[in-house]
Design a protein that fits this description.
Serine Threonine Protein Phosphatase 5, Tetratricopeptide repeat; globular; Helix Hairpins; about 220 residues; mainly alpha
Length: about 220
């Protein structure tokens, strides 16, 4: 298992404030948009996801205690391990996604989440796959919202939530998540592009609502 203290480079007695500050420093240096080379960008995205997962665990007292317990004692292996089964389906989903079989990817990621719905990464992957399959926006929205409850500080999750809400036609919610994503990742050009295309339409809708809402 990952040692989140080592990933962030903090001690086990670090305060929450120190953990959050350390994350901000690492996140700024690791932001994928800083790396034009595709391979380095991909590696940065993977590391970025790991440190984001780390801060969301260590900034949550209950999850931090569970992580500390796992580090000290390890987990018992009595009977079928739902997490292990979920990891198998997760790996199958990743393989299908990389091969462009997005329908199969959705099915495998969904099975992974059904066996273990506390893995924010699996929920995120399910949402990503749903973006690729027509008619799956609602499932993707549900997945990314659960992921955000687990990792509310994850700007990438907010970005995918915004894209899914756009696909579902819920533009006000899309704007809220995209703006939240921009707070965490100000250099995210994809988020900026979506917001730029979204704001004029929302402003026009508000103006029309104001105009038609007036009486005599």
């Amino acid at each position: 298992m990952n040692n989140y203290y080592d990933l962030l480079g903090v001690s086990r007695d670090a305060t929450e404030a120190a953990i959050r500050e350390r994350f901000r420093v690492i996140a700024r240096d690791l932001h994928p948009d800083r790396f034009p080379d595709p391979e380095r960008k991909k590696a940065a995205e993977e590391k970025f996801q790991l440190v984001t997962e780390a801060v969301n665990v260590l900034a949550n007292p209950a999850r931090r205690r569970a992580h500390d317990f796992d580090l000290d004692k390890g987990k018992g292996m009595n009977g079928p391990d739902p997490q292990a089964i979920a990891r198998v389906y997760l790996a199958k989903g990743v393989k299908a996604y990389k091969e462009g079989d997005f329908v199969q990817a959705v099915q495998n990621f969904d099975l992974s989440v059904q066996h273990w719905n506390k893995d924010a990464k699996a929920l995120h992957y399910l949402a990503l796959a749903c973006l690729k399959v027509p008619g799956q926006a609602r499932k993707g929205v549900d997945a990314i919202e659960i992921a955000l409850r687990i990792e509310p500080l994850n700007g990438l999750f907010h970005r995918e939530a915004g894209k899914l809400y756009l696909q579902a036609g819920l533009k006000a919610k899309a704007e809220r998540h995209l703006e939240e994503a921009l707070k965490w990742n100000p250099q995210d050009s994809e988020v900026t592009r979506h917001l730029a295309g979204l704001k004029p339409e929302l402003e026009q809708k508000n103006l029309l609502g104001t105009f038609f809402g007036r009486k005599g």
